[in-house]
Specification:
The strands form 7 sheets. Strands 20-21-22-29-24-27 form a 6-stranded antiparallel β-sheet, with no helix packed on it. The chain has a 5-stranded mixed barrel with strand order 6-9-7-8-12. The chain is an alpha/beta fold and 472 residues long. Helices cover 23% and strands 34% of the residues. The longest helix is centred in the first third of the chain and has 15 residues, at 89-103. The protein is built from 11 helices and 30 strands. It has 3 domains: 3-272, Spore Coat Polysaccharide Biosynthesis Protein SpsA, Chain A (Alpha-Beta Complex), CATH 3.90.550; 287-345, no CATH class; 362-466, Sandwich (Jelly Rolls), CATH 2.60.120.
């Protein structure tokens, strides 16, 4: 049996604003350890017998970050499927199933969200092994988390009759929506309910048969998207029109609630979906006063508080039960009981056409990144870092000129028909409308300061003529 981890990396993670943003969602952030949640998910199953390299499903805007983060921990993925639009989990998994079945008709899929914490790795592996025995006989398995408290932020799974010869395996009775606290307490006391983890395991052919039966529109759209897919560098782009035509639905609703072959494998694995700041605090190490701290933080007479400082010292004095999160361009202060309302902040930013829910001041690109330093009327200052051997697209701007000053490293600058090498403390000027390109021909990172001036300084004022990353 060959097991293919299918890692779903398409979420936005708005409940962890201001750290999680649209272009840098929580699965791409190092929230609990020094590795990102995507990296932790991929590493968790690496080296298991019979487990292949992961297949990752992500959005187009995250493709280079996903590839780079996997490369950084030595993982060469089986593939990276690019979703042209978000359509929930059922279409994403159906496309992954079509993709895998075309290569391996007996492929088994282990579907894993990219943004979950699992502390008990051995227990998780044993749960997967129990599920695999049933999946090999045609079952569609979901993993139910043994509840540790009457949580109202999770959906629940009710188990049915036990499966003979499989410890902690049961027929799947039904899924239950997120309950109120009293109902959740009765579920925990009952002993027959589990938290819905959103993790699944099944043969690709069995899942496709079930989704064709219960959600034929999703099956048809996903199949057409894979059939018309095409390669883009190391990525597989699903056909945009076909995938966008799919209804949006979860695996639970589209398949698992309807199949007669669903089972639930009980798992006590130290699991959390890290769906809020209070949930993140629960899975972090704490000091003697119950504080979870990361970054340059000073505490005085503070208890049961999460403090995260990203760019400067944060001093917290005489408080308790708070969440304090600092980034370069935003600060969140909230009571732990109110962190679910962070989404209201994001809605406010969207409604006022601001950008703090979309980008950090540091914006990653396949060639490196840039950081906003200052901005005003008709000018903007950025720090640009280009990785060794990388280069920006050959481009021009209709509304702005640029002045580049090399801080360290070596820059190869194309400006019109002229190509120049610039060293530390040297500079050049790019007039409005001039075709230009920036490259790093050296073996060390290139750091430079860019001063933009003009009537419009938006990132959409870029006309690309040539790009090694095949961006539009």
């Amino acid at each position: 049996m060959k097991i293919y981890p299918v890692i779903l990396s398409g979420g936005a993670g708005t409940r962890l604003w201001p750290l999680s943003r649209a272009v840098m969602p929580k699965q791409l952030l190092p929230l609990v350890t020094d590795k990102t949640m995507l990296q932790e998910t991929a590493l968790r199953v690496r080296g298991w017998p019979g487990v292949m390299a992961p297949l990752v499903v992500c959005g187009n805007e995250h493709r280079f970050l996903v590839a780079e983060q996997l490369r950084a921990v030595g993982i060469n993925p089986h593939g990276i499927l690019l979703e042209p639009a978000g359509r929930n989990t059922a279409p994403a998994v159906a496309a992954a199933a079509r993709y895998l079945q075309a290569q391996d008709p007996e492929a088994v899929m282990l579907v894993l969200p990219a943004d979950h914490v699992i502390e008990k790795h051995d227990a998780f592996r044993m749960a997967v092994e129990r599920a695999a025995a049933q999946v090999g006989q045609g079952a569609l398995a979901t993993f139910g988390i043994v509840p540790g408290a009457p949580e109202t932020g999770y959906g629940y799974i009710r188990r049915g009759e036990p499966l003979p010869g499989c410890d902690d395996c049961y027929k799947l009775d039904r899924f239950v929506e997120k309950p109120d606290r009293d109902t959740a307490a009765t579920f925990v006391a009952d002993g027959g309910y589990y938290w819905n983890s959103g993790m699944f395991m099944f043969r690709a052919d069995r899942f496709l048969a079930e989704i064709e039966k219960h959600a034929p529109a999703i099956a048809q759209a996903a199949g057409a998207a894979v059939q018309a897919a095409y390669s883009d560098l190391d990525f597989c782009r699903l056909d945009e029109a076909a995938f966008a035509a799919s209804p949006s639905d979860s695996i639970d609703y589209a398949v698992m609630e309807h199949t007669r072959d669903g089972i639930v494998v009980a798992a006590d694995i130290g699991w959390s979906d890290v769906g809020s700041w209070s949930a993140l605090a629960d899975v972090q190490d704490k000091d003697a006063n119950g504080n979870a701290v990361r970054g340059d933080v000073y505490l005085d007479s503070t208890s049961n508080t999460l403090v995260r400082a990203e760019s400067r010292i944060v001093a917290v004095v005489g408080v308790k039960d708070l969440v304090v999160v600092e980034t370069r361009d935003a600060i969140l202060v909230a009571h732990k009981d109110q962190v679910q309302r962070v989404k209201n902040v994001v809605d406010h930013l969207k409604g006022n056409e601001r950008t703090e829910h979309l980008y950090h001041t540091r914006v990653y690109r396949p060639w490196g990144y840039y950081e906003g330093i200052d901005a005003g009327d008709r000018f903007q200052v950025k720090r640009i870092t280009v990785k060794p051997g990388e280069k920006l697209s050959l481009q021009m701007h209709h509304h702005r000129a640029e002045h580049w000053i090399v801080v360290s490293g070596t820059a190869r600058v194309t400006c019109g028909d002229k190509v120049t090498l610039l060293a530390e403390n040297e500079s050049t000027y790019i007039p409005i409308g001039m075709t230009h390109r920036l490259e790093n021909p050296g073996k060390l990172p290139l750091h430079l300061i860019e001063v933009q001036s003009g009537s419009y300084l938006g990132e959409d004022d870029i006309v690309r003529f040539e790009d090694i990353y095949q961006r539009a």
